[in-house]
Design a protein that fits this description.
The chain is of the alpha/beta class. It is built from 21 helices and 16 strands. Helix content is about 45%, strand content about 15%. About 0% of the residues have low confidence.
Length: about 500
C-alpha cells in the first residue's frame, strides 16, 4: 500500500508558548506543502512557532500512523534545538518513522545532520523539484539512491547522492495554497499588519504573503543567499497583480507582503508593477523588502516614492546593518551611510514608514563603530515622523564568509554534532539574539558594554506606555546619549524588584 501522508513541521525557536499567530510558517514549508498536495499526498502542516514544544510534539505524534511517508522539518541553526528535541521524541515512540531535515543547517552540515539517530535524511539545497520524488520513493519503500540532493543512512553507513541539478525557479515553485493552513488566523493576527508603529490602523486587515522572487543577486558576506548560492529569479509584474486580485477575491486579502529578499531588484518590473497597481486601483496595503540605496534620483526618486505611497505601500523594510562605512564595505553591502539617511528622509516625507535593521557585534567592529551605529539608529528615530529602527546582535550563519573569519581568526570552534549544536544554542531561548551570549563572542573586545548597550536601546525601541516603561525610556535615552552604561545590572534588578512589589500589592488589594 502506498503511504501518502506527509507531516511538514515549521520549527519553533523557543520551547514555550509564544503570543498568538504573528507570521506565516516558513516559506519553504508552505511551498512544499502545496507541491505535495498537488501530487496527491495527504499533507499536514504543524507550526511549532506558536505552540509549547510539548503540545507541538503531541500534535506531531498524534498524526503518525501506518500511512505516514515521512516527517519533514525545515531547519535553520537557530531552530535546531527545537527540531532536535522533537525529532528525538518521534524516534523514541516511532523508531521506524522517516524523519527528513531540509533547510539551511542540513544543507551546510548534511553528513553531521544525518549521522545522528534522530534524523534519517538530510535534503541539501533546493527541494521543490525533488520533494515529490522523495515522498514517492519512501512511500514505495524503494532505494533512496534514486533521489538527488540528499544524504541518508543505510544501516551505519552514510550515503551522499548526486547533487540536485534542477534548481528551484518558478517552473517548479507554485503560488502557496492557503487552504492547507489555518490562514484565517494567520491573516487576522499577522504581525506585518498589526505592528505598534501602525497605531492600530490595519488591525482589521487580512494579510497574505506572495512569493514573487527567489534569491538575491547581492553578495553580502553575512547572508544566507551567499552560503547556498541561490540563483535570483522573479515573477513578472502582471502575474503578481493577478495573484493579488485572486487573493482579494478568494480570501478578502487587503494587506500584501511580498516575500522577496529585494522587491525592487529589477527596475523594469518595479515600474510595470506600479503602473498596473494604479491602473487596476486594487485598494491594498503592501510592505516590501528593499534596499536603502534604491531611494535616489537615479532610481526611486521622490516622485516615484509618492506614487508608491498612493499605491498603498506603507512600509519599506531594509537591512542597513551599520553606521560604519568600513563595516558596510566589509559586509559588501554596496551601500553608503548617507544613502541610509536619505532613504529614511524620502520615505518619511511620503508617509511610508522606513523599517530599518542595524547589526552590532560584527567581527572587526570597534567600540566606536558600535556607538555610531546606535547614534544613527536614534537619529533616524528622532528625525522621521514614524519609523521602526531595530539594532540586533550579529548572528553568525555557518557557511558565510564572516563565519569562516571567526573560525579562522578568532579561534572559534564550531560544534561537531547535532547534539553539540543543540547545547550551543540553548541560550537562544533566553535572549533571542544569537547562538550564544556576547560573552562567548571571542571577536568582541568588551562584551559587557555591548550587552548593556543592547539592553538600553531595547528600552527605547520597544516602548512601554506605562509609568515604569516611561522611566526606563528616559534612563536609557540618557545612557545612549552620554555613553554611560555602568550599573545596568543594578538597574535591571531594581526594576524587577519594583515589578514584584507592584504585583504583590495588586494581589493583596484584589
Amino acid at each position: 500500500m502506498r503511504k501518502n501522508k506527509v507531516i511538514l513541521v515549521n520549527p519553533g525557536i523557543h520551547f514555550h508558548r509564544r503570543p498568538d499567530y504573528g507570521l506565516y510558517p516558513n516559506t519553504a514549508i508552505m511551498i512544499l506543502a502545496t507541491i505535495l498536495d498537488r501530487a496527491g499526498f495527504q499533507v499536514k502542516v504543524i507550526d511549532g512557532t506558536y505552540l509549547d514544544i510539548g503540545d507541538a510534539t503531541k500534535a506531531i505524534l498524534s498524526e503518525i500512523d501506518e500511512n505516514l511517508a515521512f516527517v519533514g522539518f525545515s531547519v535553520m541553526t537557530i531552530q535546531l534545538p527545537w527540531s532536535y528535541f522533537v525529532s528525538r521524541a518521534i524516534k523514541a515512540k516511532f523508531p521506524d518513522a522517516a524523519v527528513a531535515w531540509g533547510g539551511v543547517h542540513p544543507t551546510l552540515f548534511p553528513e553531521q545532520t544525518v549521522e545522528d539517530p534522530a534524523v534519517d535524511i538530510a535534503v541539501v539545497n533546493d527541494a521543490a523539484a525533488t520533494i515529490v520524488k522523495l515522498g514517492e520513493t519512501i512511500s514505495r519503500g524503494d532505494d533512496l539512491s534514486c533521489v538527488p540532493g540528499i544524504f541518508y543512512k543505510t544501516g551505519r553507513r552514510i550515503k551522499a547522492n548526486e547533487e540536485n541539478k534542477c534548481k528551484d525557479d518558478f517552473s517548479n515553485t507554485p503560488f502557496i495554497d492557503f487552504s492547507l493552513l489555518d490562514h484565517e488566523r494567520y491573516s487576522r493576527r499577522n504581525s506585518v499588519a498589526i505592528e505598534d508603529f501602525y497605531s492600530g490602523q490595519y488591525k482589521d486587515t487580512r494579510a497574505y504573503p506572495i512569493v514573487t522572487a527567489l534569491g538575491c543577486p547581492y553578495q553580502c558576506t553575512f547572508c544566507i543567499n551567499v552560503i547556498v548560492r541561490k540563483k535570483c529569479c522573479f515573477r513578472e509584474a502582471g502575474e503578481i497583480v493577478e495573484r493579488i486580485k485572486f487573493l482579494k477575491s478568494n480570501y478578502g486579502a487587503d494587506f500584501i507582503q511580498p516575500l522577496d529578499e529585494n522587491f525592487f531588484v529589477d527596475r523594469k518590473r518595479t515600474f510595470e508593477f506600479l503602473d498596473l497597481l494604479e491602473k487596476e486601483n486594487l485598494n491594498i496595503k503592501w510592505r516590501p523588502q528593499t534596499r536603502a540605496d534604491y531611494f535616489s534620483d537615479n532610481y526611486v526618486d521622490f516622485e516615484t516614492v509618492k506614487r508608491l505611497s498612493r499605491s498603498g505601500m506603507v512600509v519599506a523594510a531594509m537591512g542597513v546593518e551599520s553606521a560604519s562605512q568600513s563595516m558596510l564595505d566589509k559586509l559588501k553591502k554596496n551601500l553608503k551611510v548617507e544613502q541610509i539617511i536619505k532613504a529614511a528622509e524620502m520615505l518619511s516625507r511620503a508617509n511610508i514608514i522606513p523599517k530599518m535593521n542595524f547589526m552590532v557585534g560584527l567581527p572587526g567592529e570597534t567600540e566606536r563603530d558600535i556607538e555610531n551605529t546606535y547614534r544613527l539608529a536614534l537619529k533616524i528615530r528622532n528625525m522621521v515622523k514614524i519609523s521602526c529602527v531595530s539594532v540586533t546582535p550579529f548572528r553568525p550563519y555557518p557557511g558565510s564568509p564572516l563565519y569562516k573569519e571567526i573560525v579562522d581568526n578568532y579561534g572559534y570552534s564550531p560544534p561537531r554534532s547535532l547534539k553539540e549544536w543543540a547545547k550551543l544554542s540553548e541560550r537562544e531561548f533566553v535572549d533571542s539574539f544569537g547562538y550564544e551570549s556576547f560573552d562567548n563572542y571571542k571577536w568582541i573586545d568588551n562584551p559587557r558594554r555591548l550587552n548593556a548597550m543592547v539592553y538600553a536601546y531595547r528600552q527605547i525601541a520597544f516602548y512601554n506606555p506605562s509609568f515604569k516603561g516611561r522611566i526606563r525610556e528616559i534612563v536609557s535615552s540618557f545612557r545612549m546619549r552620554f555613553n554611560f552604561f555602568l550599573f545596568i545590572s543594578l538597574e535591571r534588578a531594581v526594576f524587577e524588584k519594583l515589578s514584584k512589589i507592584k504585583g504583590f500589592i495588586i494581589k493583596r488589594l484584589s
